[in-house]
Amino acid sequence: MDTLHVATYNIHKGFSNFNRRMVVHELRDRLRQLGADLVFLQEVLGDHQRHAERIPDWPEEPQYEFLADSVWQDYAYGRNSVYDQGHHGNAVLSRYPIVRWDNEDVSAHALESRGLLHCEIKPPGYQRTLHCICVHLALHENGRRAQIGALIERLQREVPRDDPVIVAGDFNDWRNLAGRRLTTELGLREAFRDPKFARGPFAPLYELLAPAAVDINTGQRLVRIDRHLSEYFLFQTLWALFKTRFTHRQRRPYAAFETQAILDVWKALPANVVRRERNKRAHLSSVLSRNEVERDYAYNRALFRRVAQGWYQFNPELSVRRKVDGNESWVPIYQALNLPFVGEFAWDFVWPRLAEYLMLAGLPERAVPIALERLVARQQQAQREQEREAEALKEAVERNEAERLAARQRMEAPPPKWGTPAAKRAEIERIRQAIAKRQES
Fold it and tell me: Are 128 and 93 in contact (CB under 8 A)?
């Protein structure tokens, strides 16, 4: 076979964004339309008694079996998280036989269960075994670093040097560090950074997965951004890249978007995703500026706030729809984007801007990030030591100045009267100094 079609998707246990509704039936239809030979899935429910009792049309079989159905003849499920109502984990669906599989526990701590689902597959025409590893990495960088290390060790230990390998899943890789390690240490290539992927497989994926419209509450009115509008894909792009504004270095410490950063993402996308006339700096700048807060424009949707000249961020007064336990509500956009959690991984040079965004959004003031507590403690210790050294230097200067002043006063004071105790002490000191001088010579 010449080409192997692969898809990866975090299905969020079969629910839509913000848990608004159960979409596992629609998801099965969408996955079928992709025509993938291999599907890597994360957050797949193996069992959940409460959902099965409360939600109509809940599948009787485990989600991985329901999704595989008659399209993918083989599947493997790695159970990672177990709780009273059931369990969930990763799954791989395959059109070809899975000859062997194993699920390695790589949990960083008890509150976040993770695993590496390793499947060995025999596609037709392949002389060697294809190794597929489905991953869902930790939210914290220390946990991800250890899990990537475990993945590298497993591949080096279990996979022969010439066997093909696919690693796919939800990496939660805020700073794009995982891809660099896998490239450096194993020679793997990241598909989503390949322009060929952007021009090829991404286009049909986008057509299948992109919603028809985005509903926004600006604080003053409700706005629907239909898919044909320029604002639609721009809004989706900024949403997808939001975390990177705090975790990646930029030209300015604004924690915001500039047109060039957006164009860099769009440059390899096909015309059915971003039309040619829209994929230009002049048009992009126009869309950003005409949707600025307080901009005098008839169709201003107030989506963005200008942070500095040419730099934009979401309007903190925006809200998006969210559904939890059947109740629908409007959630502030920075809360929906989980800005407080993003702050855990933010560079220190954007902390002031992060604090400003939290204040504008009405979110609690940010504490010291867990991942940076040691760094902050070292910085505070170094500052205290500098303050002590500065205080000691100040005291030494003041002491020397006092001694110089006392010596000057002694020199300028009139000699004591002869016969007084002070005169006697002065004469004794003069004689002592004269004796000391002769001894030295």
Answer: no
Assess contact for 278 and 230: CB atoms under 8 A: yes
Alpha-carbon distances, residue 409 vs 342, 405, 412, 417, 426 (angstroms)? 64, 6, 5, 17, 15
Query: Between the CA of residue 40 and those of 37, 146, 170, what are the distances in Å?
Result: 10, 22, 9
**H-helix or E-strand spanning residue 48:** strand 38-48
> Using CA atoms, how far apart are residues 270 and 204, in angstroms rounded to an integer?
10
Whether residue 20 has pLDDT greater than 90: no
Spatial separation of the C-alpha atoms in residues 318 and 358, rounded to whole Å? 13
Predicted confidence band at 311 (pLDDT cuts at 50, 70, 90)? very high
Q: Exposed, middle or buried: residue 48 (CB in 10 Å: 0-12, 13-18, 19+)?
A: buried
Tokens of 191: 């598909």
Q: Which residues fall within 8 angstroms of residue 26, CB to CB, at 6 or more apart?
A: none
Q: Cα-flanking dihedrals φ and ψ of residue 72, to 5°?
A: -105, 110
CA dist 17 and 100 (Å) reads 34
Structural contact between residues 80 and 41, judged by C-beta atoms closer than 8 angstroms? no
Who contacts 186 (Cβ-Cβ below 8 Å, separation ≥6)? 152, 155, 156, 165
The ranges assigned to domains in the chain are 6-193, 214-367
Structure tokens at 328: 């629908």
Between 96 and 4, the more confident residue is 96
Residue among 198, 208, 244 nearest 9 (CA): 208
**What is the 3-state secondary structure of 196-217?**
HHHHCCHHHHHHHHCCCEEEEE
Question: In the numeric block, which tokens belong to residue 349?
Answer: 């040079």
Name the average pLDDT for the chain: 85
For the entire predicted model, the pTM comes to 0.58
- 80 is written with which tokens? 């990672």
What SS3 class is residue 179?
A: helix
Nearest by Cα to 247 from 114, 373, 339: 339
Return the amino acid letter for 53: E
- Amino acid 26 reads E
Per the structure block, which two tokens stand in for 223? 């706005």
Q: For 6-193, which CATH superfamily applies?
A: Endonuclease/exonuclease/phosphatase (3.60.10.10)
Question: Which pLDDT does position 19 carry in this prediction?
Answer: 54
C-alpha distances (whole Å) from 67 to each of 9, 33, 59, 70, 177 are 12, 12, 10, 9, 32
**pLDDT by residue (tens digit) across 353-398?**
888 888 888 888 766 655 556 666 777 888 888 888 999 899 888 8
